[in-house]
Amino acid sequence: MDAVNTPANGLPAVHLVDGSLYVFRAWHSMPNEFFDADGHPVNAVHGYARFLCELLERAQPEHIAVAFDASLTSSFRNAIYPPYKANRELPPPDLERQFVQCRAITEALGIHLMIDHSFEADDLIGSTVWSLRAHGWRSVIVSADKDFGQLLGTHDEQWDYARGLRWGPAGVHEKLGVHPHQVADYLALCGDAVDNIPGVPGIGAKTAAALLSHFGSLDILLDRIDEVAFLRLRGAAACAAKLREHAEQARLYRRLTRIALDAPGASTLEVMLRAPRQPAQLDSLCEQLRFGAFTRSRLRALLR
After folding, report:
1. Do 121 and 188 belong together in one domain?
2. What DSSP character marks residue 15?
3. Which tens digits make up the pLDDT trace of 227-248?
4. What whole-number distance in Å separates Cα of residue 261 and Cα of residue 44?
5. CB 147 within 8 A of CB 158
6. Is the pLDDT confidence value at 178 over 90?
7. DSSP 42
């Protein structure tokens, strides 16, 4: 078992899980040979349930919440930049149905569920992290998404569960070359193909990191563009010209890359305390999903 609930610094931890990521991973990795009582595919539900069992068994969190994206098209980011995530295919009906079932499994295990049509899972987790920090709690963000690096405070961690990797603020700098408070600016400059954010043309990851190392922030960089041409940076003059031409776009992109801290995340620690549930609720889901005996026994063992 990982000793992650209360580290050496004495701060208690809340686990915040990027649920949609692990449903998608299960959808792509699990063989399409699982069907529920009505004949619908449930391969993603089976994979997600296994992940959730492993996480709960290994970390044994007392406080936990799982965040889901409600839609790929309803975020406030789509309103200010319609191409946002337009490169992603919408989930097919079979997967949409499984998302609902994964959320039901989550709640049946007494885990607090976070979902909102205007804010993404990142925002719900970010707002929760921000709120908890003010109350002396640290967060363990269970996700591989690089965007979460911007949330990590001194005692927080990100946990890429599938790869068994964990890192704090220093790990963000090792991976991206920038500090957590610079991650949104970094992504605004070099772009994020996953979310269909183009960034400033001609500025890649290394150049973005070098610029932020020198100037500290996107705002200061754009205020002092004239200095860029004189930096010891390959293509510095062209870089300055591109920044001057695309300054407003860079500011817009940062509105997309910055995780919102005013979303309706978990409002209290009490709601994230794992709640006891009646076994009948879980048994009914297991029957509908046609879980095997081993999975059923693991799930029942997790009820308290």
Report:
1. no
2. E
3. 999 999 999 999 999 999 999 9
4. 30
5. no
6. yes
7. -
pTM comes to 0.94
Q: What is the CATH number of the domain that holds 223?
A: 1.10.150.20
How does pLDDT run across 67-100, given as a tens digit for each residue?
999 988 889 999 999 999 999 999 999 999 999 9
- Helical H segments across 60-177, by residue range: 76-80, 93-108, 121-134, 169-176
Cβ(157)–Cβ(166) below 8 Å = yes
Q: Are residues 186 and 154 in the same domain?
A: no
Q: Which residue has the tokens 């978990």?
A: 266
Question: Phi and psi for 65 in degrees, rounded to 5?
Answer: -145, 150
Residue 117, SS3? coil
Instruction: Name the pairing type of β-strands 157-160 and 165-167.
Output: antiparallel
Same domain, 168 and 65: yes
Q: Report helix, strand or coil for 158.
A: strand
Give me the residue label for tokens 């776009």.
Answer: 249
Helix (H) or strand (E) holding 196: none
* Cα–Cα distance measured from residue 63 to residue 180, given in angstroms and rounded to the nearest whole number: 24
Q: 1: pLDDT confidence band, cut at 50, 70 and 90?
A: very low
Separation of alpha carbons 92 and 239, rounded Å: 41
Q: Look at the chain and report how many structural domains it folds into.
A: 2
Q: What is the CATH number of the domain that holds 283?
A: 3.40.50.1010
Give the pLDDT score at 266. Answer: 85
Domain range for residue 187? 180-257
Q: Please tell me the distance from the alpha carbon of residue 157 to that of residue 168, in angstroms, as a whole number.
A: 5
Q: Phi and psi at residue 93, in whole multiples of 5°?
A: -55, -40
- d(CA 138, CA 156) in angstroms, rounded, equals 5
Q: DSSP 3-state helix, strand, coil percentages of the chain (rounded to 5)?
A: 50, 10, 35
User: In this structure, are residues 151 and 125 in contact, taking their beta carbons and an 8 Å threshold?
Assistant: yes
What would the two tokens of residue 140 be?
A: 């363990």
Please report how the helices 93-108 and 43-59 are oriented relative to each other, as an axis angle in degrees rounded to 10.
30
